[in-house]
């Protein structure tokens, strides 16, 4: 069975101001923090998630996509 292509773009929804921002995800590491460009709230990965994309994004990070499970 062929592997699905890895998506490298996710849309993060800020829980403070509801702004949705399309972001390119890093492929070499998890991103634990992200600052909203509108309200400047710094988002942190929620407990049990490896990164902000897994917590707030529309697409999980590349590590999770590759492994089909949590990367941390």
Please give a quick description of this structure.
The chain is an alpha+beta fold and 72 residues long.
Give me the secondary-structure topology.
Elements: E1 9-13, E2 20-24, E3 33-35, E4 42-44, H1 52-56, H2 62-67
Antiparallel strand pairs: 1-2, 3-4
InterPro entries: GDCCVxC (IPR047677)
List keywords for this structure.
two-stranded antiparallel sheet; alpha+beta; 2 helices; 72 residues
Output the strand order for the largest sheet.
Answer: 1-2
Question: By helix and strand content, what is the structural category?
Answer: alpha+beta
**In DSSP terms, counting alpha (H) and pi (I) runs of 4 or more, how many helices?**
2
Tell me the number of structural domains.
Answer: 1
Q: What fraction of the residues are assigned to beta strands by DSSP?
A: 15-25%
How confident overall, as mean pLDDT? 89
Low-confidence stretches: none
**Rg over alpha carbons:** 12 Å
Give the helices and strands as they follow along the chain.
EEEEHH
Shape: globular
Question: How would you characterize the largest beta sheet?
Answer: 2 strands, antiparallel
The proportion of residues forming helix, as a percent range, comes to 10-25%
Number of β-strand runs: 4
Please report the distance between the alpha carbons of the first and last residues.
Answer: 25 Å
């Amino acid at each position: 069975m062929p592997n699905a292509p890895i998506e490298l773009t996710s849309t993060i929804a800020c829980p403070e101001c509801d702004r949705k921002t399309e972001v390119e995800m890093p492929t070499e590491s998890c991103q634990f923090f992200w600052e909203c460009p509108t309200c400047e709230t710094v988002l942190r990965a929620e407990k049990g998630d490896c990164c902000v994309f897994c917590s707030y994004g529309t697409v999980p990070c590349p590590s999770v996509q590759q492994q089909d499970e949590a990367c941390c």
